Amino acid sequence: MAIEKSPYYSSIYHPWKCLMLFRWGELHLESIFTSERPNFQSIFVRRATTKAYAGRSMKLLHRLAPLSLHDHRNPSLKLNIPKTALRIVLIHESLGLRVSDGDSAKDDPPSSSSETKPPPRAKKRRFAPIKIANQIPMRRRKEIEKALGEVGESPTKWSRNGGTKNHVFMRKRIKPGTIRHMEYDLLDVEIGESWPVPISVIHGSRPGPVVTLLGAVHGDELVGPLALTYLCGPNFMGPDRVIDASALSGTIRIVPIVNLPGYRRMIRDFPDGRDLNRCFPGKPDSNTTSRVAHKLWSKLISTSDYVVDLHSAAKGRTNIPQIRANLAHASSNRIARSFGIETILDSKGPRGSMRRVANEEDIACITYEGGGSDEADPESVQISMYGIINLLRSLRMLPGYPSKPRFRILASGSVWIRSDQGGLLDVLAPAGSFVEEGEIVATITDPELPGVQHDVVSPIRGLLISSATHPFVNSGSPIGHLLPVKRGVTTLKKRLDDEGCLIISGSDGEPPWREDEEIEDIAVFGEWSGGSPDAEWGPAGSTDEEEDN
Which of 241, 239, 172 lies closest to 200, judged by CA? Predict the structure, then answer.
């Protein structure tokens, strides 16, 4: 006899010699009977005390359906116990039971159909995070799951048993519990411009990790400089709440402006026309940008445990606040989720980017994207500060609990919305909008052809994470960057405002949820067109990963 049991039952008592096999969520009992016909009236079941059953006991035989042991054509009989979640499967051939022709179950009263119908399974509250539409490619999913399963030990230098030592940077010693502002030369020259960038070092009174926060790696992206300037000032922990170095564990290094010459000229690249975020780790005897990358890498990045690089979209478009990280890198995965916002794009990063090189050297590094170039979007600035404080609290560097969103969108692919005509663009669905398949997201008109209008529609239902801001478009120009959402739509729609745009955590004042809430992970299937999230925005002739920050 085999007995299947729901988790509500605690034990089964049997008078015969038994072999017990346990598995999660059910119990299988195989009995070796000593007689040709077992006495079913001797079997008792004791249920655990629950609200539904109140710990009562009952005999199985009193409510069993009629048995027909002589029917050898049916080697397995299922017996349902009314008003319980217990089901008995009687297997007589496999146990070698011999039943005589005279045996019958005519003495057993027949039960009604209502009694034999199994009750509906009780709904249980789920405590583990829920993953919805987990359609990330299998190979990539295995890499990410492996990263989530890795639990590394804290380095010995973080131990509080040995006390806190001075933090040494640029041959300067910063004492525990102090804040020091200094300048860091991007170039080592005796004559000419050395491009000194401001750096603030906050060294805590207790040991901990070294976190480096960077802004304006691209000179025309201003969200990072503004957010980090606020964090360096009297608003680190909120309005008029300065950082208390004596309550800090570890060290925070803040560099609001990395690309100082590009920032002064209001351009993306360095003066030699190269992108700093494609030149890491750099070379000490190469071109200007490569030399700067080498010095930043050797003195600043390689000596960090965690790096957060703040960016904005390139010219001609705007991004909703989002995190880009290699989710298969364990520590990067951790801080990407701890940032506390909804959208996370899984990518290794372009070749030569700071994030990719750092991960290859086992340094956790993530990229924050928000807003557009040549603008300081207030919401993107606020969310970046919110996320940084969440990250520091998650690493136990700052007191307090980190806040988390209700759900996350984990994306490994996207869909591009493109124009089939040329003219002037009028965007109807801005970045952050949740659009349906066939919905009009923009219109294109031509002043030379009055009255002619072309509608740009969404090819699929999803979330717009980026949209064009430049009004001039040609056939094939990207209009929007769309994450297709097939499941978890109800959860996502609960966080839309009256205009159908996503309300991102950290943008609406106090955090709406705390760390003990369930989080739904909404995975998005696909691959990045061109090899990276923003490759399709690049100019003609650009490399496959050139335009991803």
Answer: 172
A 10 A CB-CB count for 36 gives 11
Higher pLDDT, residue 64 or 372 = 372
Distances (CA, A) of 24 to 4, 21, 28, 118, 365: 11, 10, 11, 21, 39
CB 414 within 8 A of CB 526: yes
- Clarify whether residues 171 and 67 are in a common domain: no
At 196-242, the pLDDT tens digits run: 999 999 999 999 999 999 999 999 999 999 999 999 888 777 677 77
At 156, the pLDDT band (50, 70, 90 cuts) reads: low
Which residues are within 8 A (CB) of 241 and not within 5 positions of it... i.e. 6 or more apart? Answer: 234, 235
Q: Is residue 361 domain-shared with residue 451, that is, in the same domain? A: no
The answer to whether residues 184 and 199 touch, using CB atoms and an 8 Å cutoff, is yes
Q: Which domain holds residue 109?
A: 2-116
Question: What pTM was computed for the model?
Answer: 0.71
What percent of the chain is helix, strand and coil (3-state, nearest 5)? 20, 30, 50
What are the C-alpha distances in Å from 240 to residues 231, 243, 386, 390, 509?
Answer: 11, 10, 15, 18, 16
* Single-letter amino acid code for the residue at 397: M
**What's the Rg (C-alpha) of the chain?**
32
96: left (phi > 0), else alpha (psi -120 to 50), else beta? left
- Beta-carbon count within 10 A of 391 CB: 25
**Burial class of residue 496 in the structure, from the number of CB atoms within 10 Å of its CB (0-12 exposed, 13-18 middle, 19+ buried):** middle
Distance CA 54, CA 47 (A): 9
Residues 131, 521: contact at Cβ < 8 Å?
yes
Q: Are residues 286 and 188 in the same domain?
A: yes
pLDDT (tens digit, 9 = 90+) per residue, 509-525?
544 334 445 567 777 76
